[in-house]
């Protein structure tokens, strides 16, 4: 294929430059929306009436992020309908949505890609700090194509305030937060402040720090799981020009993490392929079991990741700029990301990702009964890996997408949505000694939905989407050992360019997904519920096919095969009075290869549970109990994971006028030994045992 750089890339740069000029005309948003109102409404032009949102969605408020005790994004979202976590110790955890993870789940920082390395490997952290999040929005289903046809699992959008969108009340606003826990001796703190400097300028600064030892787990040797320590530091400074019609702001952010890699073994370092066979040779390595670990993480005999990310963000919004246009929104960012994997004091592998992304969305004024948004998005990144686990060449990736979503509301009872996205993608290896070729292709996605509000506040939604996903650079070019997943990876390209044996060479191309959903929802009143099912048929699903296996180490070849994902999600809540409410929830996803090739690996087990909530003046509390079933629908190389019961308790007390808040969170109070089937460490590293977290927040 021959890639011709699409003129939209240059056009986007011109648009970005044009939008920066009218700074004095830009202004702040109206008062901050309630945490239950999706800010993404402004992005996708869905409208602020949530009953009209044609997609499953969830919102986690900043208060809930604090009280959850979560240190990673996946941990913070685990428990939402259809959402689980792909855990790797306590330093890294990615969200899993409807059985999808990695490049099929797009993580955004206020609608802009995070541009880290978390879609390459489960041990690579998502560079988003829940301690500093204002709230997190999760979209699942057809609406995700607005951010990329490849986000067939879902979109996670983390909202923050690093660039203020309004003038602070009284000229100064801020938040302080402190938190600690018992399971890992965690000590965490965060602070943020926005100050008005003149009539229109707002300055913002924020930072966070977290330090946790290796966590405890029931029945584990010496009670702690080596390599599960984590330390994180974040800081950001920004300024924003705010007037009556919008805002324009700039922020610089810095993040550094040091965390352990549990379950690591040198046992298979010598493994390599001979065609489609795996040769591993001698395995006389010392596993370190005789070492005396004192649980000071500086002395634990495990590899460590040192991560540094530097990022610049430009954000703006201009309301009613001229006739026919209701809103223009701008997002642009530049990220310089690097992490070193350090073993026995030496850097063994270094990963880097450097690049920029820009996005412009234009919301047009109503045309009859039609409202909508259209836009363009462009990114240009360079990813590189050097060292022992450099299983990828240096790759330049350019992507340009155009999108359109329109809404038609002919009556109070009916609402219709149509959307489309077209993308151009190029992967180009740089200075590659194997001369792997560039890849370029296009992808087109469509979605449609109909909402029938057949009774007041009760709606039935049917949605359908055709989405295309182009291969990730890792899926194309991989060739080398990958210790985090205990695999030797061979890409989609032929054996001569990657590995896996010429007999396994096959055609490769884009994935094509057909997603159908039906949802019944009631969002107002004492009784509320959301019950729905989905069917996702993916043609040419890209997966890691096992060619050969030695003990727990596998030779894999990225291959394509049709797959079927089926599932359902349900939440039902009832408020008995002003004090007491209760609810039940459940979700399940089942995934198989369509040609009888068995189960798709690492699919989360079914989950069912209930909650009881008490709200009495300044005091509130929640008791949650759920059961995760034994997962026995497994791939050939997997082991079944046992089920478990999870009992959690949250207590919250608002002091005085409510600006100060004290919370206590008890997690895994039954002290169950939990094995996470979605994790690559499912049978090697358990999740934390019984844990008590206590924290204090103060808003001013």
Overall geometry comes to: globular
The CATH superfamily is TonB-dependent receptor, beta-barrel domain
What integer is the average pLDDT?
A: 88
Instruction: Kindly estimate the percentage of residues that lie in beta strands according to DSSP.
Output: over 45%
Q: For the record, give the distance between the C-alpha atoms at the N and C termini, rounded to a whole number.
A: 57 Å
Q: What's the CATH C level?
A: Mainly Beta
List low-confidence stretches. 1-51, 283-299
What is the share of helical residues?
under 10%
Largest sheet: 22 strands, antiparallel, barrel
Query: What is the CATH-assigned architecture?
Result: Beta Barrel
The counted number of beta strands is 33
Describe the structure.
With 700 residues, this protein is mainly β. It has one domain: TonB-dependent receptor, beta-barrel domain (Maltoporin, Chain A), CATH 2.40.170. It is built from five helices and 33 strands. It has helices at residues 7-20, 40-44, 62-68, 73-77, 473-477, and strands spanning 57-61, 83-88, 92-97, 105-109, 112-113, 135-139, 154-159, 172-181, 187-196, 201-212, 230-243, 246-260, 272-274, 277-279, 304-322, 325-343, 346-367, 370-387, 395-408, 414-429, 439-455, 458-469, 479-482, 487-490, 511-522, 527-550, 553-575, 580-593, 607-616, 619-628, 644-655, 660-667, 691-699. The protein has a 22-stranded antiparallel beta barrel. The chain has a five-stranded mixed β-sheet with strand order 1-6-7-4-5. It is globular, with a radius of gyration of 25 Å. 50% of the residues are buried. Mean pLDDT is 88; it is low at 1-51 and 283-299.
């Amino acid at each position: 294929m021959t890639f011709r750089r699409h003129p939209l890339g240059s056009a986007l740069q011109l648009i970005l430059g044009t939008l920066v000029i009218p700074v004095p005309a830009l202004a702040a948003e109206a008062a901050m929306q309630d945490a239950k109102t999706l800010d993404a409404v402004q992005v996708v032009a869905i409208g602020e009436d949530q009953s009209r949102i044609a997609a499953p969605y969830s919102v986690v408020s900043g208060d809930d992020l604090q009280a959850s005790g979560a240190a990673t994004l996946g941990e913070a979202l685990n428990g939402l309908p259809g959402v689980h976590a792909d855990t790797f110790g306590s330093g890294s955890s990615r969200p899993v949505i409807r059985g999808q993870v990695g490049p099929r789940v797009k993580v955004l920082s206020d609608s802009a890609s995070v541009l880290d390395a978390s879609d390459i490997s489960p041990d690579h952290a998502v560079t988003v700090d829940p301690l500093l999040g204002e709230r997190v929005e999760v979209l699942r289903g057809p609406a995700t194509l607005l951010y990329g046809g490849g986000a067939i699992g879902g979109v996670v959008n983390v909202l923050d305030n690093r660039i203020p969108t309004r003038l602070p009340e009284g000229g100064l606003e801020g938040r302080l937060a402190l938190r600690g826990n018992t399971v890992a001796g965690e000590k965490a703190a965060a602070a943020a402040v926005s100050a008005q400097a003149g009539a229109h300028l707002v300055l913002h600064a924020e930072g966070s720090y977290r330090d946790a030892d290796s966590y405890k787990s029931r029945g584990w040797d010496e009670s702690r799981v080596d390599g599960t320590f984590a330390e994180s530091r974040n800081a950001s400074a920004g300024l924003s020009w705010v007037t009556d019609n919008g805002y324009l702001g700039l922020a610089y952010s810095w993040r550094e993490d040091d965390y352990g890699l549990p379950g690591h073994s040198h046992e298979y370092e010598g493994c390599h392929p001979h065609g489609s066979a795996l040769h591993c040779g001698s395995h006389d390595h010392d596993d370190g079991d005789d070492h005396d670990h004192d649980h000071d993480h500086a002395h634990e005999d495990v590899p460590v990741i040192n991560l540094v990310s530097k990022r610049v963000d430009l954000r703006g919004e201009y309301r009613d700029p001229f006739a026919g246009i209701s809103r223009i929104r701008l997002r642009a960012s530049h990220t310089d990301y690097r992490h070193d994997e350090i073993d026995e004091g030496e850097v063994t592998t270094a990963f880097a990702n450097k690049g920029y992304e820009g996005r412009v969305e234009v919301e047009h004024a109503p045309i009859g009964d039609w409202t909508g948004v259209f836009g363009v998005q462009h990114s240009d990144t360079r990813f590189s890996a050097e060292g022992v686990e450099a299983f990828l060449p240096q790759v330049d990736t350019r992507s340009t997408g155009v999108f359109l979503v329109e809404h038609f509301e002919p009556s109070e009872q009916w609402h219709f949505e149509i959307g489309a996205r077209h993308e151009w993608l190029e992967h180009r290896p740089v200075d590659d000694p194997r001369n792997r070729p560039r890849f370029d292709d296009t992808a087109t996605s469509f979605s449609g939905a109909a909402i029938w509000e057949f009774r007041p506040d009760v709606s039935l939604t049917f949605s359908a989407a055709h989405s295309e996903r182009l291969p990730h650079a890792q899926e194309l070019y991989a060739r080398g050992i990958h210790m985090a997943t205990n695999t030797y990876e061979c890409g989609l390209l032929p054996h001569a360019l990657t590995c896996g044996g010429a007999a396994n060479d096959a055609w490769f191309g884009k994935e094509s997904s057909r997603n159908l959903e039906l949802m019944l929802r009631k969002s107002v009143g004492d009784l509320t519920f959301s019950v729905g099912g989905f069917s996702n048929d993916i043609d040419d699903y890209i997966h890691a096919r096992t060619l050969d296996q030695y003990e727990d180490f596998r030779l894999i070849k990225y291959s394509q095969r049709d797959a079927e994902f089926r599932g359902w999600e349900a939440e039902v809540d009832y408020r008995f009075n002003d004090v007491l409410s209760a609810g039940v929830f459940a979700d399940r996803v089942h995934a198989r290869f369509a040609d009888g090739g068995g189960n798709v690996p690492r699919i989360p087990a079914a989950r069912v549970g209930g909650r009881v909530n008490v709200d009495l003046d300044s005091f509130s509390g929640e008791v949650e109990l759920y059961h995760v079933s034994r997962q026995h629908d497994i791939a050939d190389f997997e082991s079944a994971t046992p089920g478990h019961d999870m009992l959690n308790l949250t207590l919250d007390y608002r002091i005085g006028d409510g600006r100060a808040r004290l919370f206590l969170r008890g997690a895994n109070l039954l002290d169950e030994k939990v094995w996470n089937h979605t994790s690559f460490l499912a049978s090697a590293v358990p999740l934390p045992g019984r844990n008590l977290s206590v924290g204090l927040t103060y808003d001013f």
